[in-house]
Design brief:
- The structure is a single chain.
- The chain has 9 helices and 9 strands.
- The chain has 288 residues and is an alpha/beta fold.
- It folds into 2 domains: 170 residues, 3-Layer(aba) Sandwich (Rossmann fold), CATH 3.40.50; 94 residues, 2-Layer Sandwich (Pantoate--beta-alanine Ligase, Chain: A,domain 2).
- The chain has a 6-stranded parallel β-sheet, sandwiched between helices. A 3-stranded antiparallel β-sheet has the order 7-8-9, with helices on one face.
- Helix 8 packs antiparallel against helix 9.
- The protein is globular.
- The structure holds adenosine monophosphate.
- Adenosine monophosphate (AMP) binds next to helix 2 and strand 5.
Length: 288
């Protein structure tokens, strides 16, 4: 398949071969390359990562792939927003190439390999989405091996994912530098997410309070409150907002995501939350 240069202003590679050809041409010119993996439905959070890519490399690839293997059967894979044309328009003047493979190209018949991590991938999201990080690690490894970028950029919005990818890249000696980009938020502090489009106006209002409770809980831990007390109180407040299920509200070691044995942080810490409102599951995190 030739590089698609007709559909949008930005060329689109749909196969590994096309992607590699484009990257090889840049390499021949001595240019450095950044990759920003996404599932599309792009918003300012994604675009901030693209800006970071442009600051750190000569050429920027944005991959758009709604990866089936990171969704469990009961999750929103089919409903997940797919807006390729709008995404391409948002990337104009920012990205140099879109990589948008289809599922058959990424996972041809007979595909049998999974990369799964112990440790950092096990708690929190790992408890509630047990197959999620294996899907993420495998697809990110494939995207990196296809593009062979100098750097790959991920958002701190998915903090545990960022830690999982850093671990995988270190463990597998993948020579790509991983950069994290700060969380982009709405004016009321709600972390931008492609899933925010699912929220009803009432849910959207409650969702805007999640970051406030997160910040206040982090502050009370930073001021000396025991973690278990502060998170129990914060959890009750989240449920009182109208969230029907709190998967977790935890203060953990920022890098390993292990709990602190003495109920107080003894190393750089992060507060992380996942909670469901209506049919939407939201996650957020911040430093303590
Ligand atoms: P997704 O399309 O949801 O897989 O996200 C693609 C990348 O964008 C991931 O590295 C996310 O962490 C990152 N991202 C998503 N939302 C935000 C946000 N609000 N701020 C910064 N990065 C984000």
């Amino acid at each position: 398949m030739p590089l698609d240069t007709k559909s949008y202003e930005i060329p689109v590679a749909r196969s590994a071969a096309d992607l590699r050809e484009a990257v090889a041409a840049w390499r021949a010119e001595g240019l450095s390359v950044a990759l920003v993996p996404t599932m599309g439905a792009l918003h300012e959070g994604h675009l901030s990562l693209v800006d970071l890519a442009r600051k750190n490399a000569d050429r920027t690839i944005v991959s758009i792939f709604v990866n089936p293997t990171q969704f469990a059967p009961n999750e929103d894979f089919s409903a997940y927003p797919r807006t390729e044309a709008a995404d391409a328009a948002k990337l104009e003047g920012k990205a140099d190439l879109i990589f948008a493979p289809n599922a058959e190209d990424m996972y041809p018949e007979g595909f049998s390999t999974t990369i799964s991590l112990t440790g950092v991938s096990e708690p929190l999201e790992g408890t509630f989405r047990p197959t999620h990080f294996a899907g993420v690690a495998t697809v990110v490894a494939k995207l990196i091996l296809r593009a062979m970028p100098d750097i790959a950029i991920f958002g701190e919005k998915d903090w545990q994912q960022l830690m999982v990818i850093r671990r995988m890249v270190a463990d597998l000696d993948i020579p790509t530098k991983i950069l994290g980009g700060p969380i982009v938020r709405e004016p009321d502090g709600l972390a931008l997410s492609s899933r925010n489009v699912y929220l009803s106006p009432e849910e959207r209002k409650a969702a805007g309070q999640l970051n406030v409770i997160l910040r206040e809980t982090a502050a009370s831990v930073a001021n000396g409150a025991p973690i278990s007390e502060a998170t129990a109180k914060g959890g009750k407040r989240i449920l009182a907002l109208g969230f029907e299920k709190l998967d977790y509200l935890e203060v953990r070691d920022a890098a390993s995501l292990a709990p602190f044995p003495n109920d107080r942080p003894t190393a750089p810490a992060r507060i992380l939350v996942a909670a469901k409102i209506g049919k939407t599951r939201l996650i957020d995190n911040m430093p303590v």
